[in-house]
Recover the amino acids of this structure.
């Protein structure tokens, strides 16, 4: 082996060790509070790319110097849990549109206020109309929407009426907040089955005025509870997105832009952790079989995901395949919308509806309530 080759391999080994170190730190992010370890949250966002580096070096050393492949191999074994949270290893199957008689179909979607809030007669746009058509086409029994808006102003859309009466969901519970112009904004649950009870938990300041809402639904003789919520977002504006794009291309003032984005992410994840810490105790006290749907604004190897999910089933990991991206901007690795169930439910099938009407994709899942004890 030439001197150049030896030096090159040692440089690659050093990079490999660094990537493994960062990868293992990213794996730890799920278990350490971002209140104390905000930098780990940034690493958790880079988890997919760190994983690719570790896999690359594993393959490289197998062909070049086998004993050094152990560095990446051991890291992949140690990071097995976060890897299986990130990627669903199921056989890919087509979603059956026809729903089984004893199954419950749930759809969850951050509808981004239906994009068009003021009544729009522009036939070339009609994003809201297309979104309503999509909702109708999935034929769900229960709809969980985040960032849902509705107005009593005659110049604005009344989406409560559009969904409840227009699409045939007569039962609903709307957690709305006053947003000016007689416009209400919040999380909502619609149902084709009767609602026996409802409830709401407000998250404390300084977090955004979001809420965790639930409904108890009666299907025949069975009762079960559905929760939905929208956790603190990163609050990225257009100027923030432009800074991120500049960072991707290594343009502009890299250090200034990076520090600005880090501060914004740190504030968001710390506020989000306050909200996430409240949820497990609330879910644990549910007296009924439970389903949780929502936009957590966090990835599967994050503290938020690990805390909220707890021992529940992640429906996408049960029946989905791949990464399962649900946010259609910034990065193809962002799965931030989830359907969790307790062990009273069996997950039959799940799909993402990958239209670009909202900045999130809709998730549709068929569940079977196997036990109500």
């Amino acid at each position: 082996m030439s001197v150049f080759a030896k030096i090159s391999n040692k440089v690659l080994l050093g990079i490999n060790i660094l990537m493994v170190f960062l990868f293992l730190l990213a794996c730890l992010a799920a278990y350490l509070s971002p209140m104390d370890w905000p930098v780990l949250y940034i690493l958790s966002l880079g988890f997919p790319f760190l994983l690719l580096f570790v896999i690359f070096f594993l393959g490289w050393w197998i062909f070049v110097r086998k004993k050094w492949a152990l560095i990446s191999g051991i890291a992949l074994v140690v990071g097995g849990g976060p890897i299986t949270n990130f990627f669903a290893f199921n056989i890919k199957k087509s979603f059956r549109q026809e729903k089984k008689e004893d199954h419950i179909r749930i759809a969850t979607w951050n509808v981004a206020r239906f994009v068009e809030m003021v009544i729009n007669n522009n036939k070339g746009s009609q994003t809201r109309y297309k979104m309503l058509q999509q909702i109708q086409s999935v034929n769900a029994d229960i709809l969980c929407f985040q960032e849902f808006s509705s107005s009593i102003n005659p110049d604005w859309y009344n989406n409560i009426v559009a969904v409840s009466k227009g699409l045939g969901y007569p039962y609903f519970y709307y957690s709305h907040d006053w947003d000016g112009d007689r416009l209400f904004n919040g999380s909502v649950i619609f149902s084709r089955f009767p609602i026996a009870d409802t409830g709401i938990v407000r998250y404390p300041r300084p977090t955004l005025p979001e809420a965790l809402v639930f409904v108890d639904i009666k299907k025949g003789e069975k009762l079960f509870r559905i929760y939905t919520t929208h956790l603190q977002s990163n609050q990225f504006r257009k100027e923030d997105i432009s800074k991120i794009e500049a960072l991707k291309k290594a343009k502009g003032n890299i250090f200034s832009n990076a520090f600005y984005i880090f501060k914004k992410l740190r504030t968001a994840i710390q506020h989000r952790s306050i909200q996430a810490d409240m949820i497990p105790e609330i879910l644990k006290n549910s007296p009924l079989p439970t389903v949780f749907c929502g936009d957590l604004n966090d990835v599967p190897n994050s503290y938020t995901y690990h805390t909220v999910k707890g021992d529940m089933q992640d429906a996408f990991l049960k029946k989905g395949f791949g990464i399962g991206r649900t946010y259609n901007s910034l990065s193809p690795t962002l799965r931030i919308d989830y359907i969790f169930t307790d062990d009273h439910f069996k997950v039959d099938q799940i799909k993402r509806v990958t239209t670009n009407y909202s900045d999130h994709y809709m998730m549709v899942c068929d569940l079977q309530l196997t036990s109500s004890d």
